[in-house]
Amino acid sequence: MKKVLVTLVAVATLAAFAGTASAVTCTIDHKPAATLLLPYFQTSVSNTGGTIAPTPFGTGITPAPGGDTLVTVVNASAAPALAHVTVWTNRSVPVLDFNIGLTGFDVLSWSMSHVLTGDLPVNPALEGENACADSSFKRFTPNAYPTVNDPTASTNYGSPAFPQSFAAALVAELDGSDPCATGAGEANFDANGNDQLIGYVTIDMVNYCTFDNPNDPTYWEDVAAGFENLLWGDYTIQSEGTTPTFGGPLVGLEADVAELNGTNAAIDAPVRTFYARYWEFSDGSINSALTGTDNGGAGYFSTIGLFPPIFGDMREPLGVTYGARYINAAAGDSTFLRAWRASADDLADLTGADCTAVEPNVFTVIWDEDEVPSQQTGCQVSPCPPGLTFNIPYETQRESIAEFGGSSAAGAGWAYVDFGANGTVLDQAWLAYDFSVPGAFANSGIDAVSFDANNCVPADFSGAVFPAVPEVPTPANADGNTGSGF
Prior knowledge:
A hairpin with a 4-residue loop joins strand 13 and strand 14 (373-376). By secondary structure, the protein is mostly beta strands. The chain is globular, with a radius of gyration of 22 Å. It starts with 6 loop residues before the first helix and ends in a 36-residue tail after the last strand. The longest helix has 12 residues, at 7-18. It contains seven helices and 19 strands.
């Protein structure tokens, strides 16, 4: 499909912002958003004859080959748009980023194993054109780009997009053998030439293509990230082995330009937003690198109700308290917790001290099916004393209930997990679980239930942050019953 007319951009932009009234800000729901989070991915690659490539299915290798994560992103708007994809390690180090172009109502999919070995997604709807240089995709051309090489950015990639030496560095960074991303580590391939990589991914709607990332102050200073709620998508974690195959929606983080450091928000108090840990300090002060100067988008921002100076990301945050079920009743039963977390004051520590630092322990109560609770605290010092383990030590991970709960995990039950008990006002997290019982039912992956009534002011931090008031959906009909025809 060819590109939509430039004149549709402003109309679709306004529609995207008007559409936020149908969702509840600060409560994560499945709506088009300005940022998508893939909280956890796992994939496998192989090294045969010195060539790093996706591990093929059906080769009979042990451990089971072919594990991968498939990602799909959709543009819900009629207007063409750009998105910036960042791949992060389990210590929140960005190791790869690239830009994609989406025509109106477009969809684009990719495999993480292919991306990490140099096969970046090229959108056939662009018909070979570079969306980064197309005015119908860009919202404005900045006076100053965040990175000097940004004007050369493209959405068209060669195959491969980078050499084998870079692929080897990515493997080392994502398999944990080079956790601080020095680029000089060696990948940890097993005897059969296989390796498993884990991490997480963020996908931001952007105003123009950039090589900067959300952890760079200039990403916000130069307003690379946009605020249109038009992205949605899903992911599938697949395997032909014993690891369950399951999927779910990408986590949509809507931008609210009126409440979250936008036109109506104070900038002298901590505001919980998704990316605030990179541009705001927990005492409420703004990173001094951010001046909020006009970077060439004043005309565009006025159409969406924003005026310089612009601070922050304006994306709703995630919560801190969750509940997840588990089954651990018999041999062959398996339950895993998939956890993503962002501890504001500990981000730097995770890449310091020779990469031995870990996240603070979470407060956990594990309940069995007889309603008997058992508090599980994990280690308080490093290295762990015998019999104790760190619970959820990294920014992203997948842990079995046996590893997470230890002897506290009875045959079946549920876990209450509080990521905020030992954190700061800018901490946040996401939790899900997957389980498999042979012969009983299919493998499944389920998002954990959130116990935070409002992610912007969760229970642990009540009164400690500037309250962003959630929007209330407007009923579709006069009788006040949304969906009713009477």
